[in-house]
Specification:
CATH superfamily of the largest domain: Aldolase class I
Shape: globular
Number of strands: 19
Distance between the termini: 33 Å
Oligomer: single chain
Structural class: alpha/beta
Largest sheet: 7 strands, mixed
Strand content: 15-25%
Helix content: 25-40%
Number of domains: 2
CATH topology of the largest domain: TIM Barrel
Number of helices: 16
CATH architecture of the largest domain: Alpha-Beta Barrel
CATH class of the largest domain: Alpha Beta
């Protein structure tokens, strides 16, 4: 028997009427952790729930069949959208296998560790932050029946019933020293999306974003040589010729990007790639160098066309800078993505109209426009400011896109919740302390209603396939 059964619960699963759309992405986080655990001498039974067959992976019987005969320790990894399902899955595991230790990891539980451990007794331990060092240390203590008090980066339920939070673990600052993911644990050719990590963290103070606080506002980058070496491995092993650099801080500076472009160009690899950019760190010279070595798509988080909103969310650039850069990007790259957010609690209709005008303008230029309703993620400054004592409500027709779970059915601009999932969404509504990311501020709903009744404004659903990738 393996020492740990590690399950990836991150899924891109959408229902459009009677049709189901799912994208399989290589589960990087779990495979990094698997590599670290096996390098430390532990046997990992890795299972990717993305590969669960059938059209209802949220049926708990299906899930329990998928995890049959698990190891003594079961690790569950999830992002924000599937945290409710993951907690229900943990409860089902404990009912079926009461002697197993359930460990929760991934960004989904970040900043709500205490609330989860108090409310959901089926979760024994939550790992915070990077797992490459915490995972092996935790498994060593669990295997030998030792005390957990000395393990940095975990929150747990003590044997006396108390909830304990050990100090944070220092960040891993030498990203090149992290071994490549355990790609041999999966059939790489089954996946449609091949993400890569080129950096970890972001130093910017954007108040709505969870990336920087999750990584404690520290950013560390891999060397261009290390990145290209992994690209070569995936190209040779699985024929991968299109990569998505998943981290938001690939464009951490012109010197880093230009060095990467030179390294990739000299490698001889015939590959293409996509990346996220940042308006105030990107210029025309850099973009042309990126396009010349295979960059097909550059994605920008613009968020708002209103300077007052940009300043309040501490975005770090102005609408004028955006207007100067995006037309150049559209000219250089086959595709330029512009992400926007609406529904800030303090956003007025005039602010929204400025954003709408910018979205329309960029779309006419040829950019792809991807608007999302604000999600009050618990790690963010905006959530800390507005959630306590605020007016939040669950609106089945007004769910932030980042927390679509796959239970919903999307019909045009309407969102329907099948009756068989009532208990699932009741869990969310009954536990706003844990799941306020699913609950928009009431003012967003009021502005949505106003926009829908204003002749000059139409909030259209995003075309299929244009959901922001995780």
């Amino acid at each position: 028997m393996a020492d740990i059964t590690l399950i990836n619960l991150n899924m891109l699963f959408m229902r459009y009427g009677e049709e189901i759309e799912r994208e399989l992405h290589v589960p990087l986080g779990c495979l990094y952790l698997t590599r670290a655990l096996e390098s430390a001498g532990f046997e990992v039974d890795f299972r990717d729930y993305q590969l669960c067959p059938g059209d209802d992976p949220f049926n708990m019987g299906v899930f329990l069949d998928f995890i049959r005969q698990p190891a003594p320790v079961i690790g569950l990894s999830c992002m924000a959208n599937l945290l409710p399902f993951t907690l229900l899955a943990a409860r089902a595991i404990k009912e079926r296998y009461p002697d197993r230790i359930v460990v929760l990891g991934g960004v989904g539980s970040t900043a709500v560790e205490d609330a989860i451990l108090q409310r959901f007794s089926s979760v024994d331990i939550i790992c915070r932050g990077e797992g490459e060092q915490t995972g092996p240390e935790l498994m060593s203590q669990l295997t030998n029946g030792r005390e957990l008090s000395g393990i940095a980066g975990i929150s747990y339920r003590h044997r006396d019933g108390s909830i304990r939070h050990n100090p944070d673990r220092p960040r891993i600052d030498s990203i090149d020293d992290i071994a490549f993911p355990a790609f041999e644990k999966v059939d790489l050719k089954r996946y449609a999306g091949y993400g890569m990590m080129t950096s970890r963290g972001c130093p910017y103070l954007c108040s709505f974003c969870s990336v920087a606080p999750v990584w404690r506002w520290q950013s560390f980058s891999r060397s261009p040589k290390s990145i290209v070496e992994e690209m070569r491995l995936l190209n040779c092993e699985a024929g991968v010729d299109l990569f998505l650099f998943q981290d938001e801080f690939f464009v951490s500076g012109k010197k880093q990007v230009m060095e990467f472009c030179r390294e990739l160009s000299s490698s001889g690899l015939a590959v293409e790639w996509k990346a996220f950019g940042r308006v105030n760190l990107t210029d025309e010279d850099m973009m042309r160098a990126m396009a010349d070595c295979g960059c097909l798509e550059l994605r920008f988080g613009i968020e708002s066309g209103c300077d007052a909103v940009l300043q309040r969310i501490r975005k770090g650039f102005t609408a004028a800078e955006v207007l100067a850069l995006i037309p150049k990007a559209v000219e250089i790259f086959p595709r330029t993505d512009c992400f926007f957010i609406w529904g800030f609690p303090f956003e007025t209709m005039d602010d929204f109209n400025q954003t709408l005008f910018q979205m329309v303008s960029f779309r006419m230029m040829g950019a792809r426009i991807l608007p999302s309703l604000l999600s009050l993620l618990p790690q963010t400054e905006i959530a800390k400011e507005w959630v306590p004592g605020s007016r939040l409500e669950f609106c089945p027709y007004l769910l932030p896109e980042f927390v679509f779970t796959g239970h919903e059915v999307l019909n045009g601009g309407e969102v329907e919740i099948p009756a068989r999932y009532d208990d699932y969404f009741r869990l969310i509504m009954d536990n706003p302390r844990h799941f306020h990311r699913f609950l928009p501020h009431r003012s967003a709903g009021q502005r949505f209603a106003q926009a829908r009744t204003t002749p000059s404004i139409r909030l259209l659903p995003r075309p299929r396939g244009e959901r922001r990738k995780r």
